[in-house]
Amino acid sequence: MMKLAVLGSTGSIGSQTLDVVSRDPGRYEITGLAAGTNVGLLLEQAKRWKPKVVSVATKELAEQIRIDLPPGTRVAYGEQGLIEVAAESGADFAMCALIGSVGLKSTLAAIDAGVSIGLANKETLVTAGHIVMKRAADKGVAIYPIDSEHSAIFQCLNGEDRRAVKRLILTASGGSFRDRTRDELASVTVEDALKHPNWSMGAKITIDSATMVNKGLEVIEAHWLFDLPYDKIEVVLHPESIVHSMVEFADTSVIAQLGNPDMRVPIQYALTYPQRQPSPASPLDLVKAGALHFREMNFARYPCLRMAYEAGRAGGTAPTVFNAANEVAVARFLKGEIPFLAIETIIERLLAKHVATADPDLDAILDVDAQTRAEAAALK
Ligand code: MG
Q1: How many whole angstroms from 205 Cα to the centroid of ligand 1?
Q2: What is the whole-number distance in angstroms between the Cα of residue 146 and the centre of ligand 1?
Q3: Which domains does the chain possess?
Q4: What's residue 335's pLDDT?
Q5: What's residue 102's pLDDT?
Q6: Which of 14, 73, 244, 313 is geometrically suited to a Cys-Cys bond with 152, CB 3.0 to 4.6 A?
Q7: What is the distance in A from the centroid of ligand 1 to the CA of 218?
Q8: What angle do CA 302, 306, 309 make, to 5 degrees?
Q9: 209 CA to centre of ligand 1 in angstroms
């Protein structure tokens, strides 16, 4: 039986993880659940799964739910709460599905405790890939990708000699605005941006798909997960989101992983690896799909992807700036404070003035992260 902790349990990936678990409950024991402020849903989940520990964002929220928790479930809060759920709940697998760089310390704590990681929180690798991957290698801890693209690549690489990999080809749907010109982007609304054509996801990642920041984060994530230089990681537009990504090998063979867009497939694969189990996802009907389209990525149309490659190649603290500037800019766009295109100008301005530190330690990363956030919040 897998002992599973879910960080970000009330979010999109966390909820879908518990959905996967609920279809084969004999296989799993939930040891810990961590949420932010959605205490209503967390309480429902706690009553159903009776974890040893749950965690919420603040002490006040912890006090608020304490009385309603099932007997045997204790409540923690804040960063220490995340660490308790990840590393001290008795889990042997932690689904790390927090949003943003808040997931970093708890992921490292889980690795230190020898807990296998399902990594849905891409910002963790973007900001601290050099630390996380080295720590995991030192501890012999496996990191299973949850992102659909990286799960696809992970599946394509199964049993292959890594030295024969010529390049990774990540697919990008193009997000909510793929058919609009840059001129048309100037006046788009939050509501428009939240309508993703293929995937049903949280608000932050849906905006990140529209700006192509999401693909940029994924390129950096792929660099760390698969230990390949940026020259070997490419992005192609694929509006149908059926080919989740591909690997080209030395002999020109290309192996792809296909399926209808449904995050429960990569989630389940990470949980049951190397086995494959039946899934609630709808089977792929290629005849019905009829045609699959691929278009060259246009970096002028999607400058955030260009900036992600630049930040990735610069390395050190540059990806932290890219990520932190974006997180704040997206939050401000969602609040109606800034127009859509200001997301990219905020990232561009903060990256331009940043002098990257090579091989930063965790404190240096957190300093740059905090400083970038403050600056991104103040930029007009
Ligand atoms: Mg993805």
Answers
A1: 9
A2: 8
A3: 2-145 (3.40.50.720), 150-314 (no CATH)
A4: 94
A5: 82
A6: 244
A7: 7
A8: 140
A9: 9
Which residues sit with Cβ closer than 5 angstroms to ligand 1, an ion? 147-149
CA–centroid distance, residue 140 to ligand 1 (Å): 26
Cα of 54 vs centre of ligand 1, distance in Å, is 27
In sequence order, which residues have a C-beta less than 8 Å from that of residue 221 and are 6 or more positions away? 122, 125, 126, 129, 145, 147, 150
The alpha carbon of 122 and the centre of ligand 1 are apart by a number of angstroms equal to: 9
Half-sphere exposure of 150 toward its Cβ, with a 13 Å CA cutoff?
28
* Residue 149 alpha carbon to ligand 1 centre in Å: 5
Mean pLDDT by 10 residues, the chain (380 residues): 98 96 97 97 98 98 97 97 98 93 91 98 92 97 97 97 97 90 89 77 86 96 97 97 98 98 97 96 97 96 97 97 96 95 97 93 94 95
How long a stretch of residues is the chain? 380
Distance 152 CA to ligand 1 centre (A): 10
**What is the Å distance from ligand 1's center to 303 Cα?**
18
Assess contact for 224 and 147: CB atoms under 8 A: no
Nearest to 328 by CA among 359, 302, 349: 349
Structure tokens at 210: 């529209």
Strands 233-237 and 243-249: unpaired
Phi-psi sector, 168: left (phi>0), alpha (psi -120 to 50), beta: beta
CB 178 within 8 A of CB 305: no
Structure tokens at 154: 């992970």
pTM of the model: 0.94
CA–CA dist 271, 290 (Å, integer) = 32
Q: Is 56 exposed, middle or buried (0-12, 13-18, 19+ CB in 10 A)?
A: buried
- Contact criterion met (CB below 8 Å) for 160 and 249: yes
- CA 192–ligand 1 middle distance (angstroms): 20
Number of other CB atoms surrounding residue 332 within 10 Å: 18
| pLDDT for 171 | 98
Residue 101, pLDDT score: 74
| Count of beta carbons in the 10 Å neighbourhood of residue 223 | 24
Distance 148 CA to ligand 1 centre (A): 5
- CB atoms closer than 10 angstroms to residue 327: 22
